[in-house]
Amino acid sequence: MNPTNELFQAIVNEMTEGVIFLDAEDRIAYLNPAAERIRRVSAAKFIGRPIHDLHPARTYAAVDELLNRLKEGRAASRHRVIQAQGRYFDNTYTAVRGAAGDYRGTLLVSRDITEKKDLSEENLQLKKILARPFERSALIAESPAIKAALAMVEAVAPLDSTVLLTGESGTGKELFVERIHSLSPRRSGPLINVNCAALPEHLVESELFGHVKGAFTGAVGAHPGRFLQAQGGTLFLDEVGDLPLAAQAKLLRVLQERSVQAVGGKGETPVDTRIVAATNRDLEEDVRRGRFRADLYFRLNVIPIHIPPLRRRPEDILPLAEHFLIHFARRMSKPTPRLSAEARSHLLAYDFPGNVRQLKHAMERAVALGDGDVIEIADLPREFGGTVPEPVGEVEVGDLKSALLACEERCLIAALRRHGGRRTETARALGISRKALWEKLQRFGLSEKLP
């Protein structure tokens, strides 16, 4: 063999691009090893066969048109992107002609552009996110489930009806409340948030309805209460399912009478506020078990809106992740990183028991600890397949602290199960306040694990 031909043969055999040569009759005359790998075919079996044998029937017309353009001289080369075996390839077809200009065949070169295409799609998504006004209450809605919930929000926002938001902890119910308020006629009024689970039991009535000076020990001054603070606006009762039964009865009366009586006060004050409530509990089940008043449930459940968990709307995972990457990169004065293909795959495969809040914290950690412009799997928390920093210094102290925290978490879980998830009884049995219990549940991420 001619040494020059041997050199060319060696070069083509080592190329990572797939090389196929078609003769003037559109039959396969040569395939290099890369083409065999890409097409998953054997050269020995395909040499001499028509190019159509490498393509599905639906593409025959497009391939014929492309080859005819090359033969007739209407184009010197053509590009065509195809998808095969889950990857993308940029195919370049080039007419090969003799010295007299006669058509000898077509050279087909296939380049794997999967990573380039993925990066392009990531950049487009980032541009879409950057084009949005960056607001704290920005809601990412790519999934049909969230789009349906937002459509319901926009429909009921102009009304004054009571709304009950349901969904697991961490799904972003507070953002839906902000949306309702901002689209309502009350948007110029206050939006007052009340976390019912965090209120000490003996102060629930005072916090909601107010108190007069001297009403009880420690009441050194008058307090208007959250209902009056929300006059002309919206009152958000978060975790309303955790209110004690006694407080539920008084809340029902206020909703019916539209007036409040401060603790220690004699007269009543009319209230003009819209109520939006939220819970991560199954209130219908709580009603059946006597944990929640049926009449209050029906009073709150005028317009129910369910916010699905993140695992039920995978279309939102990557847009949300990229939104949080931009947010935390700006806050930390860092360049905005992008997610690697492996990190994206791990995020999409995870079931997110902590929902959007868990994803947000994961992206904050990734930005804080990442030292490059790409978020890799190792930058993600351990539950996603990432790593955690090794303890340094006095390891024994760190181990003891971890052991104590683990013991405290097990104690909380056992107490919650023993008392059927009832926080008031759980707090009483543990000898702590409801507020202290709520803070511990938040610390350990146990809100969504209640029975």
From TrEMBL:
Keyword Heme carried by entry: no
One Gene Ontology term of the molecular function aspect: sequence-specific DNA binding
Domain Sigma-54 factor interaction: 139-368
Keyword field contains Methyltransferase: no
Gene Ontology biological process terms in this record: regulation of DNA-templated transcription
Keyword set, alphabetical order: ATP-binding, DNA-binding, Nucleotide-binding, Transcription, Transcription regulation
Ranges where the PAS domain occurs: 4-74
InterPro entries: AAA+_ATPase, AAA_lid_NorR, Homeodomain-like_sf, HTH_Fis, P-loop_NTPase, PAS, PAS-like_dom_sf, PAS_4
PANTHER family: PTS-DEPENDENT DIHYDROXYACETONE KINASE OPERON REGULATORY PROTEIN-RELATED, TRANSCRIPTIONAL REGULATORY PROTEIN
UniProt name for this protein: PAS domain S-box protein
Organism of provenance: Trichloromonas acetexigens
